[in-house]
């Protein structure tokens, strides 16, 4: 039984109220997942700082990682949010489905990245050497690797929060992989 309600602006700390105001201004709403972080007086700010930190990965590369990790962790909320964000970053529906299963036949470099993100997540960081070599052969650097691993951790945090709290999805729900071409 789900015992988590999505916090409202009125029920969160003053610091989180200010963050809610900024999210409303930037996005037009406060995503339920972010609101759930606000059950803690510090987690929302800490997460947003980590999630929005500088990285060597492009926006499209970040979405490739987010989609692969969220699929492995079976997080409907994050799959739905990152499907929408992936589309804003130029991916089509077919490409998004591919990225979710950890591949990208349409782009060799993104393929290596998605495969690595999936492998790291499935193996809890005990990455297969051939997957790692393929990642470097595709042109990624050691700096990119550290940023990719950090992003896997970032996304895993949000996946686990959603999967534990089961808060409602407030994005168009991502399509099921069942019966997909992938």
Write a concise synopsis of the structure shown.
By secondary structure, the chain is an all-alpha fold. It contains nine helices and no strands.
Count of helices?
Answer: 9
Mean pLDDT, to the nearest integer, reads 96
> What is the CATH topology classification name of the largest domain?
AhpD-like
Class computed from helices, strands and strand pairing: mainly alpha
SSE ordering? HHHHHHHHH
Per CATH, the superfamily of the largest domain is AhpD-like
Compute the number of structural domains: 2
Major sheet details: none
Rough shape? globular
Number of DSSP strands? 0
Strand content: under 5%
Query: What CATH architecture label of the largest domain applies?
Result: Up-down Bundle
First-to-last CA distance = 33 Å
CATH class of the largest domain: Mainly Alpha
Rg over C-alpha atoms, rounded to the nearest angstrom: 17 Å
List the helices and strands and how they pair.
Blueprint: H1 14-27, H2 32-37, H3 43-51, H4 59-72, H5 76-88, H6 93-100, H7 108-122, H8 129-137, H9 142-165
Short key terms for the protein model shown above:
AhpD-like, 9 helices, 62% helix, 0% strand, globular, 182 residues, mainly alpha
3D architecture notes:
The longest helix is centred in the C-terminal third of the chain and has 24 residues, at 142-165. The model has no long low-confidence stretch (mean pLDDT 96). The chain has helices at residues 14-27, 32-37, 43-51, 59-72, 76-88, 93-100, 108-122, 129-137, 142-165. With 182 residues, it is mostly helical. It is built from nine helices and no strands. It has two domains: 9-51, no CATH class; 59-165, AhpD-like, CATH 1.20.1290.10. The N and C termini lie far apart (33 Å).
